[in-house]
Design a protein that fits this description.
Rossmann fold; 6-stranded antiparallel sheet; Alpha-Beta Plaits; alpha/beta
């Protein structure tokens, strides 16, 4: 059982004495707004702690207030779960941010968290305190906190620092502008180049409360609209995988969500849905020409932050293979024959590279596994085989001949490159 117990002190300044019932009602509204179904399912619970049915009042200068009255109350935040999650710390940060936002309109504020003085860091809260005009923004969205260990969530990805940085900068711009500037990101490139892995790592870094994910191959317009409308707190980040594989009509709801209106509307005989949707969308695309045809180019134009991925180099593929081989206690000598075979069949898909290395293992050094791949890993050669297929088979045959002429134990060039990848 994993348990955590936190205490958050909230304070409220007032120029006159306030009734206990009114303050209790305000605080219970804050608590109810934070205790979403998703957090409850994950084992979190927030409660108002009352002492003798009263709230403390003091004029102590540590609260930073010199007026006639200041009230304080304690909120307990507890976790009880049987499952370990790496996102627990981020989830707690999101709960603190949610409490900070929910406190704005009843004019409470967080004073400390577990005895440590709290300094509000949520730009949305600062903006709302300056100009309280849009109550929907305060109660309709899950808070988003970019964790201090953001970079640690992407250390398993090689050669993608610039891609990750561009997504992070778009998130920062949205948060700092209180979601007025939403530069939607589309990650464009061939399968296996790291697009989906970046999306999954973003979700892990920000926590599930802050991210909604749709799969383009299985999302319907009605389903997406329904989920967006029924969420207690709308996440600020929307991920759409393989968006160009969806039926064009099923993605039209994104047009209004991503433009300046930032809303969804749907009217049927049974329901009338309208919801503000100030979210940033991050999508992945394998086939750009197909995506450009969606809605006559209108959807593609909404993605102002276009991020292109290239096929990984041999060195990069070697580092990826080294990571996976070391994870199972394997031999780094498998890397070179794996990459040689990959070049012979003209593939740079990391998933295929990893499969060759971890399935072939020691038999890659002698060429035994390459022989098996030659006889089973591609269509059998016949008179109807095209020129490309015949050339691929010829390259593999030459590779096998080279292996037969070499000492497989001594054939470990560039091994230091992969050893360095571990550091």
């Amino acid at each position: 059982m994993i348990t955590q117990d936190h205490h958050i002190t909230v304070v409220k300044e007032a120029g006159r004495a306030l009734g206990t019932d009114k303050m209790r009602s305000q605080l219970q509204t804050i608590v109810s707004g934070v205790n979403t179904a998703n957090r409850t399912q994950r084992g979190w619970n927030v409660e108002l702690v009352e002492r003798n049915g009263k709230f403390a009042t003091t004029d102590h200068p540590e609260y930073g207030y010199t007026g006639p009255q200041i009230y304080s109350a304690t909120l307990s935040v507890n976790l009880r779960t049987d499952k370990h999650r790496e996102s627990i710390d981020v989830e707690f940060q999101n709960i603190v941010a949610a409490i900070e936002i929910k406190c704005v309109y009843p004019k409470w504020r967080i004073f400390d968290v577990d005895g440590i003085a709290f300094k509000g860091k949520n730009p949305a809260t600062i903006n709302m305190r300056a100009e309280v005009t849009d109550a929907a923004d305060a109660v309709g969205y899950a808070p988003i906190v970019v964790p201090s260990d953001w970079d640690n969530h992407f250390t398993h990805l090689y050669g993608l620092d610039d891609h990750i940085s561009r997504v992070r900068k778009a998130l920062d711009a949205a948060i700092l502008s209180n979601w007025r500037h939403r530069f939607h990101c589309v990650l464009i490139g061939p399968p296996g180049c790291g697009k989906s892995d970046i999306c999954h790592s973003i979700k892990k870094a920000l926590g599930e409360e802050s991210v909604m994910e749709f799969d383009g191959t299985s999302t319907t317009m009605a389903g997406a609209q329904k989920e967006l409308a029924e969420r207690e707190e709308l996440p600020r980040v929307l991920l759409v995988e393989e968006i160009e594989k969806a039926p064009e009509s099923s993605m039209s709801w994104l047009l209004s969500l991503m433009d300046l209106r930032s809303e969804i509307r749907k009217t049927t005989a049974r329901s009338n849905i309208m919801r503000d949707t100030k979210m940033i969308c991050i999508a992945t695309v394998n086939d750009l020409p197909t995506f450009k045809r969606f809605n006559f180019g209108a959807l593609e134009s909404r993605f102002s932050n276009k991020i292109f991925f290239q096929r990984p180099s041999r060195e990069l593929l070697g580092k990826i293979a080294a990571r996976e081989i070391e994870a199972v206690g394997g031999d780094l000598r498998w890397i070179e024959p794996t990459l040689d075979y990959a070049e012979a069949i003209d593939t740079t898909d990391p998933r295929e590279i990893i499969a060759i290395a971890l399935c072939g293992r020691e038999s890659l050094l002698s060429g035994e596994y390459q022989k098996q791949l030659l006889s089973t890993g591609m269509p059998q050669s016949n008179e109807s085989s095209d020129h490309t297929d015949r050339e691929v088979r010829a390259r593999v045959a030459r590779l096998l001949s080279d292996i037969a002429d070499q000492d497989p134990i001594a054939n470990i060039p560039s091994i230091n490159t992969y050893l360095e990848a571990r550091s």
